[in-house]
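The material for today's practical consists of a large collection of protein records. Read left to right, the backbone structure tokens trace the chain's path through space. An example says more than a description, so a record of this kind follows:
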Amino acid sequence: MKRLLPILFMLGALGACSEDPVAPPGGPGMLPDTLGPLTAVPLSLGDQWTYDVSWTLSVLSPDRDDFYPPRRRRADGIKEIVATENLLGESWKVERECWRFEEGDSVQSYRRYRQDETGLYRLFVDLSAPPGALEGIQEAEEIQRLAYPLDVAVGWASLGGRRSVVQSKEMVQTATGEAEAYRIDVTSHRDGENDFIRVWFNEDGLVRRHNHHELNAIDVDSGNHVIVVTDEIETLRKGP
């Protein structure tokens, strides 16, 4: 298991950049209640967001004690709307995302977004494809990220059996302080008992994300059962 930890850790970090993808579990803070239902998030050329990003890989014994010391990585995250593309009869904004790790390496990916009066949608295509690389694409599915107007108790289903529900309006911790935002819990039939994905959105867009996943495994050195836990946390530093 020791010699697998660096590989597992990098897979966890790379997976965070290739999935949609959420702050640790906890109750809402005192709300000023100034956030009304959302009907749009920033999605214009030049819009940019910066984030603090962290990954933690923990290997636990069945009684939840540390089996090995946790491994952690940190990155500066930058997202920017860099282009507009017409694909499959729709106009999409291309978001470039780059995580720059403390060790000096980086990971880059691209997402295509559109929004209308019904919600925010992402085109489900190759995340390595830069602007222009998908010209002539014939078919692709889209994932609904938000449903408008976004408010408490609003829910929607999306690609792959994913289900999103707005659980509450909370004060959530960002990289520079607290912000009022809607908390959305995302679930699917593939989730384990302790897995969760939570995202928080407000007028700035995504302000926090926490993905928590657990996997049962066998330690190759000792033969003992272990639980491999990954936590991916992204907190907004500055919005558009």
In short: Residues 2-238 form one domain. The longest strand covers residues 66-87. DSSP finds one helix and twelve strands in the chain. Residues 13 and 76 are 13 Å apart (CA to CA).
